[in-house]
Amino acid sequence: MKVNQIKDLVSKMTLDEKIGQVIQLATPFFKGASDEGQITGPMKEMHIPDHMLQHIGSVLGASGAKETRSIQEQYLQDSRLRIPLLIMSDIIHGYKTIFPVPLAIGSSWDLELAEKSATIAAKEAAVSGVHVTFAPMVDLVRDPRWGRVMESTGEDSYLNSAFAKAQVRGFQGSDLKNDHESVASCVKHFAGYGAAEGGRDYNTVNMSERELRESYLPAFKAALEAGSKLVMTAFNTVDGIPASANKLLMRDLLREEWNFDGVVISDWGAVKELIPHGVASDEKEAAMKAITAGVDIEMMTGCYANHLQQLIETNAMDVELLNEAVIRILQLKDELGLFDDPYRGADEKREAEVVMCSAHRQAARDIAAKSCVLLKNEQDVLPLATTQKMALLGPFANSNDILGPWSWLGDKNEAIPLDVGMRNQLPASQLYVANGCGVNNHCEQDLSKAIELAKQSDVVVLALGESSEMSGEAGSRTNIQLPQAQLDLVAAIAKLGKPTVAVLFNGRPLDLHGVVDQVDAVLEAWYPGTEGGTAIADILFGNVNPSGKLTMSFPYNVGQIPVYYNSYNTGRPQGAINAQERYVSQYLDCPNEALFPFGYGLSYTYFKYSDLELSSDLMTPDKPITVKVKVTNAGDVAGEEVVQLYIRDLVGEVVRPLKELKGFQKISLQPGEERVVMFTLTEEQLRYHHADLSYHSDEGRFDLYVGANSQDVMTISFNLHKTKGE
C-alpha cells in the first residue's frame, strides 16, 4: 500500500478503531486462544472496555500456526475494515531451538553465527505465525549484578553495534514483505536501561547526555541503520524523565535527529508505571504524556484504551497525535505483507518440518561450542582423554536447566544435559555422575557420594552455576559468587588433589573466588541452549578447540563493580610516576583490574603476535592508516583466534577511555601457520562527542594496540593531522 492509501484507510476509521490500533494485549484477550480467552488477575484489572476488544491492533505472546491462524481468522470476522492483527513475541535467543543466551553469542565474536542464529529463530517463529520479535536487546552493560546482562552482548558499544546489525539482518532478512520466513525486529530498550543504579532491575538511570550518546546509543543507531522496524522504550528514567514519557528521547532524538519513522512500543506496563515514577497523577495523564512523547503502542496497560477518547473529545489532545501513530502501525503491517496475507507464513505443515529440525539443532550445537570461553587451563588438563575415568559432579551434571532466561517456548526436556553429552563420547563405565549438592542446597549424603566417586576417578569435572531463575529479568543479585553449597563442593573436591575442571552455567560474569583458585581449569559455558551438553562435551574432549572471548569483564569481587576495560584515567592513576604510593586511585584490598578482562579467552593452542606496523605514522581525514600484524599458531593443534584492535586518544577536549575497540577479525590457523592480519583505521573512527555534543576528532597523538585481549597487546603510535577547514 502507498502512503496515500494508508492515510485514506485511516480517514475511514472510527475513533475506537484508531485507539484499538495503539493497544497491545496478551493472548488470553483474544477469541481462539488456547486458554479460551480466560482473563484473570492483573489483566482483568486493566478494565479494557468490551467494545474495544474487537479493535485491538496487536497481540502479545501468541504462538503456533494453529493458534495464530485461529486468532487472526476470528479477529478479521469482526473487523469492519479487515485490518489484520500484528502478532508479537519474545524470540530472544531462539524460538523452540534455543541458542546460547546473547551474552554467550557475543562471546563467540562471530557475526555470521549471530546472524545465523537470528535467521533460524525467525524462520521457526514465522512459520508458527509470529510477525515481530522483541529483539535484539542492545543495552550496554557494565554491572553484572543486573540480571539482564544475559540479554546483552556486553560492555563495548562498538561490538554491541556490530552484533545489533547482525541480529537485525538475521531476523528481518532482505525482503520482509515477501520472505514469510522472516520477522520484524524490535530493538530495545530505549535507552540507558543497562545502567540501572546498583544493578537493580527497573531502577533509576542517571548519566550525562554525552555519556548516553557516547556509550549507550550507538548500538541502537546501528540497529536502526540495519533496518529494525520497531523500537521498545525502557523502564528507566533518562535525565529524570521515564523513557516512556520522554519527548526529548523519542520525538527529538529518535524521530527528528535520527529520522526513524517506524513504530515505538512501550515495554510491558510501562505507560501506567509513569504514575509510581511520579510524573503522572493518574492513567489519563500517563496516556497523555506517553502518546505526546511518541509511544505508538501501549503494551498491557489500559491507559490508552480508557482515556484517549476523552482526551481527544475534550480537545486536551490533538487527534493528529493518534493518527500519526496509527499510520506508522498500518505501515508496519503493510511492510510485513499482512494486508495481502493476514496469515503470513503460518503453516502447520511447515511448522512441523522446520521447528527443532536436525539442521537447526546442529547449528545450536556449533554456536554453543563457539560461545564457550576457556578461562583457565593449568597443566593442560583440558582437553580430556577419553581413556580417563571421570567423575562428573555438581548440580548441573545432569540438569536440563541450561536454556537460560527468555527461552520462552524452549522445552527443557529437549535440552541435552552435560552427562548425556559426555556419555555420547565415552564408554559408560568411564563416567561417574553425582550432584554432590543442589544449586543452593547442601546435602551431606550427596557430598559424601560425590567425594567417593571423585576418589575413584582420574579427573573430576564440576558442573556449577546459577539456576535460570537467578538470572534474567528481575534477577538482580548483590552476591555474584556461586552459592555456598557449590563452593563447599569445590573445596571438598580440591582437597583430593585430583585434576579438576569447572564448567560454569550462568548468565552473568561471576565473582569466581572459591572456584578459580581451587581448580585446574575453568570453562565458561553460560546458558548454552538446547544442544548445550553436546557442545560442551565437544570442547572438553578436544573435538572443538575453544575460541570464545569475553565481551564483559569478570570482576575480582563485587566491590569493584562497575569494572570495565574502556574506563577513564584519573589524575592520580595507579603506577603514576612521582606519585606517592598510597595516594593514587586504587583499592587497598583488591587490584583495580578485572580478574578476566574484556576480550580474554584461552585456546588449546598458543598464538604469537609479532611485526606490528603501520602504513604511516601520520593519519589525515583523506589518508587512513593500514595496520598489519603477524599472527602465528605456535601450538600443536588448529585453532581460531580473535585478533583485536584498540586505540587511545591521548589528549582530548574531554577525557578519553584508556582503550577503545575499533576492529576485530576472527581467523583460523593450522599448527605452525602464520598470517598477516590487516586493519584499516580511518579518521572517522577517531571521532567522539565533545562537551557541546558535537561529533568530531581531535588532532594529536594516538596509541594503537593489537592483541589477544584488551590487556595483552602490542603497542604502536601515530598522529592525526587535520588540514585547515576540516
From TrEMBL:
InterPro entries the record matches: Cellulose_deg_GH3 (IPR050288), Fn3-like (IPR026891), GH (IPR017853), Glyco_hydro_3_AS (IPR019800), Glyco_hydro_3_C (IPR002772), Glyco_hydro_3_C_sf (IPR036881), Glyco_hydro_3_N (IPR001764), Glyco_hydro_3_N_sf (IPR036962)
Say yes or no: keyword Aminoacyl-tRNA synthetase present. no
- Alphabetical list of SMART domains matching this protein: Fn3_like
Residues in Fibronectin type III-like domain copies: 641-710
Write out the GO MF terms: beta-glucosidase activity
Recorded superkingdom = Bacteria
Entry's PROSITE patterns? GLYCOSYL_HYDROL_F3
Q: Which GO terms describe its biological process?
A: carbohydrate metabolic process
Task: Provide the alphabetized UniProt keywords.
Answer: Carbohydrate metabolism, Glycosidase, Hydrolase
As for family, the record states: Belongs to the glycosyl hydrolase 3 family.
Classification via PANTHER family: BETA-GLUCOSIDASE
The name this protein goes by in its record: Beta-glucosidase
